[in-house]
Design brief:
Elements (H helix, E strand, L loop, with lengths): L3 E5 L3 E2 L4 E8 L6 E9 L10 E4 L5 E2 L13 E4 L11 E9 L7 E8 L4 E7 L5 E6 L4 E6 L10 E8 L4 E8 L11 E6 L12 E3 L13 E9 L5 H8 L9 E4 L8 E4 L7 E4 L3 E4 L20 E4 L11 E6 L7 E9 L2 E9 L10 E5 L1 H7 L5 H5 L1 H14 L28 E3 L26 H14 L4 E5 H7 L9 E4 L5 E2 L1 H12 L3 E4 L7 E5 L6 E4 L36 H4 L1 E16 L19 E2 L10 E8 L10 E7 L8 E2 L16 H4 L3 E7 L3 E5 L11 H4 L2 H14 L12
């Protein structure tokens, strides 16, 4: 745990609204806090460096910040299960699919009073054996253990029967997944109730964890159709359960096919003992009955009746509020941060002030991609664990530049990103900003470089290359985030003369794409200043702002691949994955789309003959030569790391002009074509050689009603803006574009645009 850290309850806020900050402070010292405006978050001394401006209005302390824990692990909680246990005898059944049997105890069903050491649990022990535990007042004891262990990634029916009248406990499992055409016989164990034991207590019932006061023993895997009976099941009923059948007469039976988009689990039994899920496990999962005939959980709910729980799920740290700040009326729309200090510990928490609703304060809107920030939040890069030298270089460069010193790879306690894996090897599909996001910090460096020409920045810090350039060149701008874009649509943008993205607007909802397209088609001027944009489709939690879902379905450069049948979002029931596979390639919006990726290195652009066309020649006023952009804080060049190209078959307008393309990308990157462009190891979807598809296309086209679109096709483009004190060819190019886009004179569509 960090000695001092925290998070905000929101990432964007308007004047007159209040933003609250939740902290953990283990220093024992008082916390000093101030609000600053962030002009540049890049610590690279070759650029402007970290540039902060003090803000007069101070945050208000709301209490003493103390050390807090991060409550990991998803589970289900049923608060008043008493009717299931009224007779003293009871039975519990469930279908289970373990995904990590790593020698640690994992609870499946439990109801315990930890203080009194009483209650019961059905769990897997350290040797992967099913065991029934009963509390005798001094400890929880395993009383019936099935000696044959379970194996990972196979479905089982499990049960616990407590017969108070006979004074007996029985536990068992039966495999539901045949192996080589055979199903092993059921395995059972039984024992007498220990003297003084009290398995029935007044406490919540938990699924996939134990101890309702401080949940532990989290289960890794899928659970399906848990049920509790207020009697001891008969041998015949156990046989039915062993075959995965639904035994009649349950006091409670939770149907996980209902309310998939929510945190509610519904009990179809007579007492309506509904429960709630904690820390957002994955829903809409393939279950024990999945046949492969349907891929969407909405079409065959009974085949998707499972919930996948993980010991490292987290959606909200739940820490108390330590400071709050009410944004003063008239506050400038910009990037801000809460700067914290206690003893020797320092921390910062960035956020964004957007204009009052329904108003603008500048002609330019910069759309900040907070969905992308959140999806990447706490990305522990593979180099961190695999390459000690890389880790040492990162720490050395961070220290030399006085950058942000905390790397997510060292602090998995705050949860990792959707570019990482759960401990059971499944991909992390849920992200949340209700926790410290260590790579969304002023001064955070993503990659290392042997010299100061390359910052190695992505996302938040990289986007301040653009905002610091706008300020250096005297352009007035507003900040809006994709959250407001999702909520308010194109009307949020329509009053702006120009709308720009940052360096990496990768993750979008249907609403944010609709808003950008609507703005463009009403005559807006759109500047896409990044690469790998508008690529993945995400869904937002309908219950909790700040919780976002990604299903990495078929296609795309992916950190992990969703399991077959699990490509549909739980939050909205829609097919996830690439927007291209949802019929909306990025070229439809901006004229270019993701084509290739390499290491964080850049190259330059070369003008095409089309650059002399009067429709676009004005872009290059003051820029001599055939090449430009061979410099930059982001990877040493304006065209690098992730590249987008035009493709008219994917939606690039027929009249679009590719004015320049990148070339000579360093071969040692190495560069790879995105998977969706491959057909075989020899052929590509566009029919061109792979090497010709590794390029960034700087593209322009006019739109109806006097609008236009300018796209750079490169994630490192904005990193070239600060070179040479903001005086360089990329700076001049963007200034030419913005100046023309700000003019009221409408653009005209060419007559032969097709």
């Amino acid at each position: 745990m960090l000695p001092l850290t925290g998070y905000a309850d929101r990432l964007s806020v308007r004047p007159g609204e209040t933003i609250r900050f939740h902290l953990s402070n283990a220093t024992g010292a008082d916390v000093d806090a101030e609000i600053v405006r962030v002009v540049c978050a890049d610590p690279n001394p070759a650029g402007p460096g970290i540039t902060l401006e003090p803000v007069e209005a101070a945050p208000v302390a709301c209490g003493v910040a103390r050390e807090e824990r991060s409550p990991h692990g998803s589970y289900a909680r049923i608060d008043a299960p008493g009717p299931c246990f009224a007779t003293g005898s009871f039975s519990a059944t469930c279908l289970v699919y373990p995904t990590r049997l790593a020698g640690s105890r994992q609870a499946i069903v439990s109801r315990t009073d930890p203080a009194a050491a009483r209650g019961f649990s059905l769990a897997l022990d350290e040797r992967n054996r099913l065991c029934a535990s009963i509390g005798d007042g001094s400890s929880m004891r395993d009383v019936a253990t099935v000696e044959s262990p379970l194996v990972e990634r196979a479905w089982y029916a499990v049960w616990l029967v407590l017969d108070a009248e006979a004074g007996e406990v029985r536990a068992g499992w039966a495999a539901l997944s045949p192996r080589f055409g055979e199903t092993p016989p059921a395995k059972t164990a039984s024992a007498s109730l220990p003297p003084g034991s009290s398995p029935v207590v007044d406490a919540p019932l938990l699924l996939a964890a134990a101890n309702h006061e401080h949940p532990v023993l989290h289960f890794n895997g899928k659970l399906e159709a848990p049920a509790v009976f207020d009697r001891a099941l008969t041998a015949g009923e156990i046989d039915d359960a062993a075959r995965g059948g639904a035994v009649a007469g349950a006091s409670a039976r939770w149907d996980f096919t209902r309310g998939v988009e929510s945190s509610r689990i519904e009990d179809t039994g007579p007492h309506a003992l509904h429960g709630r899920l904690v820390n957002v496990p994955a829903r809409g999962m393939t279950g024990s009955r999945w046949s492969g005939r349907e891929m969407c959980w909405r079409h065959a709910p009974h085949e998707f009746a499972a919930i996948h729980f993980h010991e490292d799920d987290i959606d909200d740290c739940g820490w108390p509020v330590a400071f709050e700040w009410t944004v003063p009326e008239g506050a400038r729309s910009s990037t801000y941060a809460l700067m914290l200090e206690a003893d020797d510990a320092k921390e910062n928490i960035p956020f964004f002030v957007v204009p009052p609703k329904g108003t603008t304060t500048a002609p330019i809107a910069v759309v900040v991609s907070t969905f992308t920030y959140t999806i990447y939040a706490n990305h522990a890069r593979p180099e961190w664990t695999r390459d000690p030298q890389w880790r040492a270089d990162w720490k050395a460069q961070t220290a030399t530049w006085n950058g942000y010193p905390n790397n997510p790879g060292d602090h998995v306690e705050y949860g990792l990103s959707t570019y990482n894996y759960h401990t059971d090897g499944s991909g992390i599909s849920i992200a949340s900003w209700h926790r410290p996001m260590l790579n969304v910090r002023v001064g955070y460096i993503t990659y290392t470089y042997p010299d100061i020409r390359g910052s190695g920045l992505r996302h938040f810090c990289a986007d301040t290359h653009l905002t610091s350039w706008l300020e250096a060149k005297g352009y007035d701008y507003d900040i809006v985030t994709d959250q407001e874009l999702h909520d308010e649509g194109a009307q949020l943008l329509n009053a702006y003369r120009v709308v720009t993205t940052g360096s990496h607007p990768e993750y979008h909802t249907r609403e944010t794409l609709d808003a950008l397209e609507g703005y463009r088609d009403r005559g807006g001027r759109l500047c896409y200043l990044g690469g790998n944009g508008f690529y993945w489709k995400v869904a937002l939690s309908p219950e909790k702002r700040g919780v976002i879902e990604i299903r990495r379905g078929e296609g795309g450069i992916r950190a992990w691949a969703a399991e077959p049948g699990e490509y549909y979002n739980q939050f909205d029931g829609e097919y996830g994955g690439l927007w291209r596979r949802n019929g909306r390639p990025p070229q439809n919006l901006s004229g270019v789309g993701f084509t290739a990726q390499g290491n964080f290195v850049g190259s330059y652009y070369r003008k095409r003959t089309e650059a002399s066309d009067p429709r676009v020649a004005w872009m290059f006023d003051g820029i001599g030569g055939e090449t430009f952009g061979d410099h930059g804080l982001g990877g040493h060049g304006a065209a690098g790391f992730e590249l987008d190209r035009a493709d008219k078959r994917l939606g690039t307008p027929l009249h679009a002009v590719v004015v320049a393309s990148s070339e000579n990308h360093p071969p040692d990157a190495p560069w790879v074509l995105v998977p969706e462009e491959h057909l075989t190891h020899l052929t590509t979807w566009p029919g061109e050689p792979i090497e010709k598809l590794i390029r960034a296309d700087l593209t322009f086209f006019e739109t109806p009603r006097g609008g236009a679109v300018f796209s750079t096709g490169s994630i490192t483009f904005c990193g070239s803006l600060p070179s040479n004190g903001f005086e360089n060819d990329i700076s001049r190019l963007l200034a030419n574009v913005l100046d023309r886009f700000l003019e009221p004179e409408p653009f005209e569509m060419p007559r032969d645009h097709g």
